[in-house]
Hints:
Layout: H1 11-38, H2 45-99, H3 102-125
Amino acid sequence: MSDPNPSPVNPAVNTAQDIVKVLEDILVPIAENAIIAAVPELGLPIVKQITEAIEEALADKLTALAQTGVSFTVIDTQVTIEKWTISQVLANLIEAEKTGDPNAIKKAIQDYADANSKLVSASGSLKH
Length: 128
């Protein structure tokens, strides 16, 4: 059975979060090696297992925080672009109304409605 209220989907946010995870996968081993180089005793078998568990837990928490920050940045950028677009199409609508051309007004109204719709989905609220 499909979920009647699926979660919002924002491909740009998903991609940004994936990139943060890839960075974690690259940086954690580098950090582990640097720690062991600085304190060789932490590389001993049992000690290493404990330190790796701690490092992984910290990395997971830091990655989650970074993913949240990146998500907000992406969404803020998307919303800013859509707000700018609305300003432009609103100016076009005002100009169309000044001309009195019913076809231009109709098109400008549709463009304005489309821009508003895009703003709503720019926040990740587009349902798939």
